[in-house]
Records
---
Amino acid sequence: MNRLRNLFAIPELRKRLLFTLILLAIYRLGVHVSVPGVNAENLAAALKRGGGGLFDVVDLFSGGAFKKFSVFALGIAPYITASIVLQLMGAVVPYLENLQKKEGEAGRQKINQWTRYLTVGLAFVQGMGIASLAQSQNAPGLEVVTNAISPTAFRFLAAFTLSVGTLFVMWIGEQITERGIGNGISLLIFAGIVAGLPQALTTLTVMITQSLQNAPNVPPPGIFILLIGAMIVVLLAVVLVENAYRRIPIHYARRADSAGMSSQRSSYMPLKLNTAGVMPVIFASSVIFFPATIAQFTRWEWLAKAAAYLNPQTHFWIYTPVFVGVVIFFAFFYTSIVFNPDETAENMKRSGGYIPGIRPGKETSIFMDSILSKLTFVGAIYLALVSLVPLLITNNIQGLNFYFGGTSLLIVVGVAMDSAAQLESLLVMRRYDGFLEKGRIRGRSTRGGGS
């Protein structure tokens, strides 16, 4: 409570918080604005009639915008996909690798610019795909797309509208990251999941009540108890693991102080068990369900069959190893982006620091890379397990949506903890700045009095 009071007492942090909340509110309002020519209620009914768990997952990450065929139906997914593509290309294209590692801020700005261009192209292609999907849902007595314009014109209109919506969502995320609190992209996904939780809790409560009354076609109460227990375990696991560190001791060379005495400083470097955070799960979910979107646009039968095998509700035991493998890959990939052992070892060497028993330079880099690889593998397994365990239980409960899956819980708790950590760092920084400012004022007043 003291931190909350300090948050509202400091004008800068209060402005950051209000700015973040206003942009999230604008994003949630845009979810309810449908693309022209689409009957959102009929589309939701048609998709529910199809019973596709895939659409539930896509709708989850878009914050409910997909089934409404909102202007934000694509959400931030094209931007995430574009970021993944360019980061992967950076590992094989020397020019991109040079931009990422050697050009500094100018290189990052160039890559961000290309990411935006690629986002536009992906959003347009995916928009054409889901426009074709909406048209395919037309049925007698259930008109999803009106016949006011030609099918081709509707597809281009929908693709253009969805592309603009994606760019606006991308802009909102970047503004939150720069001028608000927390990571904007993660917060948008977080807001979409949290917005659907009240309805999901209502559905769960109704199903538990029916189960206690021994209603037909409803699982026994034990299944629901197991689900709630799994959710609690996931919450505890996320809190514990996200705060877990491996401390690497660091000693600094002896230096003579003002009295001529030599001293040696000791410290440690904290390496997180899960350095990548929730991003591998977000990346993995986007990549796995991307073929289904392309399949709706191309109508390739082989791609549609491949996408169907990646549906966790119908082929869970095929989806599981693929999901685990993709999560492990992105955990190592994202960790390699955010932490560079060679650069860290070189900085330590320049400042006179060393790890006891390890020679500075290359051996230090190899030592840290070895520890980081072990931590990343354990963290990737943890991400996969907490994402899949509740999903395994929900597969036995028909009618329960993905809001109770481990992926949703992991994103919600992980993003909340990251935002709280950033808020804490802003509070500490603000106190430090205030302390320095008071010191400057006191110094000026002292000098003025002495004169």
Note: The first strand starts at residue 245 and ends at 252.
---
Amino acid sequence: MRRSLRDAVVLVTGPARGIGERVARLAAARGARLALVGLEAARLAALAAELGDRHSWYRCDVTDQAELDAAVAGTIDRYGRIDVVVANAGIANNGTVAVNPADALARTVEVNLIGVMRTVSATLPALRESRGYALLVSSAAAFTVLPGMAAYCASKAGVEQFGNALRLEVAHHGVAVGTAHPIWVDTDLVRDQQHDLRTFRAVVRRLPYPLNTTITVEKCALSIVDGIERRARRVYAPRSLAAVQALRTIYTGPVAGAVLARGARTRVPELEAEVRALGRSFGSRSAADR
């Protein structure tokens, strides 16, 4: 059963850009009151001002529990409750384990997975009070593999499983939990990798449908906001990813692994050379998240 977002209090992490920003705009258009939580203060302030005085923003690193707790307290002080949480903040390091410092790999996991855990921990008392809904943004990477994305795939698979267990833990409190699984979305994060790494573009083109497709941020955000209103257990963007998840043992099995390994023999050294030449572990527009 759909639940209108009119006057619902929705806390969104990572709303300064990309999916989070567009989700915030769509939710506001449907009448939600927003708490925008993220690192880029100037962008958050501008978005909140544009959307109107029903909305607020909080500068916060999702890997810092004290900052998250303060953002949640500020939201409750202003609105009295939290009805929906969208744990969206995410980053992706460039390239393989061999060419990334351990700190870059760990930062990807810290933001994408530990950040989700901390966000849920900070907001769960409020969600229990409101019998609310949490949507944890995972990825198609949760049920596929790709060389050069070890930390990202691990973090997004972790988000999926964290959500699956959390759902069982909180159902008797009336709290619903969903996970969202977008494919490549035309955001700054994906554009940075496509611009910086020619080999990344080539690898993605060789993936089977629908894993080789890119969707607009508008289409992805619309799927997510519709999923929030349905308190959906799974949100796929596009919907064809449901079949990929159902057949995940094929996509991660020995046959698929052998096919990927053949291409990896040449593509991985090329990718590593590009990352070394680039001289940084993250996209140019991920600087604030490092």
Note: The chain has eleven helices and nine strands.
---
Amino acid sequence: MSARTRAARRGRGWIEHWNPEDEEFWETTGRRVARRNLILSVFTEHLGFAIWVLWSVVVLSLPAAGLPMSVSESFWLVSAPNLVGAAIRIPYTFAVPRFGGRVWTTISAVLLLVPSSLLAFVVPSGWLAAQDHDTRFWILLACAAVAGVGGGNFSSSMANISFFYPERRKGFALGLNAAGGNLGVAVVQLLVPLVVVAGVPVAASGTRVHLAYAGLVWMPFIVVAAVCAWLFMDGLAEARADPRSYAAALRHGQTWIVSLLYVGTFGSFIGFSFALPLVIRTTFPEFLAQHAFVRDYLAGLGFVGALAGSVARPLGGRLSDRYGGARVTLAVFAGMVVATVAAAGGVLRHDFGLFFCAYLVVFACSGVGNGSTYRMIPVIFGELGRREAAARGLDPALTAPDYKRRAAAVIGIAGAIGAFGGFLIQQVFRLASTDAASAMKGATGAAAARVAQEHAGWSLPALWIFIGSYVLLAGLTWWAYLRRGPSHAPSFAYARV
């Protein structure tokens, strides 16, 4: 096999020469190696997402476990892992160049054992139950925050996989990688409500849960993921970018534009994934009272939205490969405006069916937008590389590696900022719920349901804020990437971003 068609290795798990743009190399060697790394990356990232959003379901079971929390405290418990996960995405992206994809995927998988162990052994312990309410809340908040380590896996995984695939296949590959991880949200919201009531008599449903199972169930899979990553994944020498790539990306305005768009797409997906089960519980208590199975075993159907968003993500990459990411992203924001208006109508009419269906559309649009926005990144920075080459009279091939590294850096940066958008969504909901939470304080049973029904419209101010944000982001997408305007304010329309 010629030097062009083989991946030269240096040491355990390292590939020295990697050229997926070479058709001969890709067909004979690259495709097989890339597929193996993608499969293992998806598995580990899936578990990372599952641990990250675990507390979105756990908070619903805290009252049944003898650890009741107020609405505001519950929103903080689902916000904490989102905030931590967003914050660590940048260092997780740096970790791939520092340690290599194989080593860091192994380490990031092992770290997932920490939050799962805290949930399995600390949260359901008699020691915690013996503490006063305020102490219990702060301990629970710390345990929830540690689950944020699962949120970092996404950035390191996406940055790593972006190096394995040629430009023409990046959209679908990155979309598939992200979708496999995003599916962890739906799986955890479907599986954990069933797991925590395992062994509980039917008559006792809703009054007693085994919270330890919510942590224990993931541990065997985490161990398998870590072992497989160590044995079968690879590190690419090309991926060992220096910090200058990240510094250069941070200085470029395109990084911040794309990051804002990702706040609207991925921020919506993860923010609503965390918050929707709690929003449903506090907005439609009478619906859940009439459908006990949905309440106790399906977490208010919140998992369906996350499933729709996850399945739609590869479609976003595929459509972007064909029509351009900017066009798809603009259509996404338009769809999210219409669907959120419909959700507000469901709240006003107190129609759970309308509200829920509208949010399925929001989730599906956010999933497509996740894929389309990420597909835009390598196209934008590839075009910037060609511009620089033309300005300096160079061969574009000479600037391409530098801009590929910048694109990988932007994937990490945008991922972190987008995840922070999820935290903002939850905090908007928390602030909007202040009056309802105050009215419900101390109320139980039928009284709590009555108060919740009287304040059923508490989420409307939050929904209108989201609608306005999507309109602004749609305008930004058109202005930066689709507008064919005067030369003093050029866009990327001609580059088919």
Note: Residues 194 and 240 are 43 Å apart (CA to CA).
